[in-house]
Sequence to fold (479 residues):
Amino acid sequence: MIKPLLMLSMSLSAALSAQTTPTERAAAGAVLRAIDSLQSRLDPRSMAIRLANSRNTDRDRLLARVGDYWDGEMQALSDYIGTHPEVGWNEFKSVDTLIKVLRGHGFRVETGIADLETAFVAHWDSPAGTNGPTLGLIAEYDALRDADGPFHGDQHNGQSPVAFAAALALKEHMTTERLPGTIRIYGTPAEEVGPPAKSIMREKGVFEGADILVRSHSSTETSRGAAGFGICCLNINEVKYTFLGRPSHQLTSWNGRNALAAAVRFYTSVDGLRSTFRPEASIQGVIPEGGIAPNVVPARAVVDYYIRYPDGVYLEHITRMMDDAARGAAMATGTSVEIDRYGEYRDGITLGTLEELYFAYAEVLGAPRLVEAPQRPAGYEETGGVSHDIPGVGVSVFSSHGTYHTHEMEADGLGPIGHAGFRLDAQIMAGVLYHFLTDGSFRAAVREEHRTLKGLFNQYQENLKTAYAAEIGLTPPAD
Fold:
């Protein structure tokens, strides 16, 4: 048995590793200690091991049915979507197929959700009533963009069938056992293309009423996050800079104003700024528009950037400086610039209660490539914001030897490695939802942890503003 002092030490070590930069760690100090105290009191690891290893014939029957649904129909559905890839906002064939499957299994489906053509919500209410929890599952289906055409190099083809397998088995179980509650499946398009669909859906209130959300995703390992704040791919600002000039024949170029020259000057200025930013910054940009014909002065050019940093406060500082560089490039070339921040991704909330239960089931079910140490918190969906409203977890069992966004990962998603990982994802998601549905004490622990961490997140943001104030010219918050 682990001694309490050692357990506290291990928990604090995991929490400290959750923050990337020295400034984050300094700003989060008191917050991390509060998170550590909460984790010590809730003891989610022990709770998870007890639940996942308990003798429970109802639960075991449920997980077996998830496997039956995957083997009988959902694996083929995953392969179909995988071999008919469609990029974000254009997943019409995939969505049409998914909706037909859901309606065939008794779900009521609303389409065009949040004014997004390829978004949907599927509903099922238990015959025993709806005064139980509302169980939400996120389903994705968009493919990656590539010069050779779309491809499922992030295995989004499996994510909807995984959710369906878990939902259908739960639907069957709730009907048989007369358990009240509701199941909702959220079809969320364009995970790989901004602006983030889940943020749009959140702003429209689509997720309101859900008590928990679960999703799956491809992975090169089986790991879980530490409790706390984070996001999978750093905080991101998606910003498009459109330079507008005046056309002219190149032989009389002085009559024009060269938008491409402004864009190139700006692009070069950003490279020059890199040394003034903290080293954890990651800034990637392309020039998707630079003119039409060599003999015409370009009147329009576009620079599209993904600006990333481990926390959102310093990210705003980077973005402000880049915005100023764009305005300077426009002034220097006699052009104008329009700045469109079309997407934002911010830290989400990761719950130890749900992460540990997912991982305990991964252990019990024999998931491969288990990583024992908790990793940096990553929320459970890529926008961060939804996890502030609703507790949830992302299940990511090892499903590929190839890294993300590659044809190797696509091939594994259509073969035995991906199929096995997806099957486990579905069973684990169903296991987590089963306990949330049937165990009041577990449900209360999840809700308490989410409520507490949400309050601590606001404190963490204020601490970051204070820590960065002198460096980036912020006015420190009033005491």
Summary: The chain has a mean pLDDT of 94. The longest strand covers residues 235-244. Residues 440-472 form the longest helix (33 residues). The two ends are 44 Å apart (CA to CA).
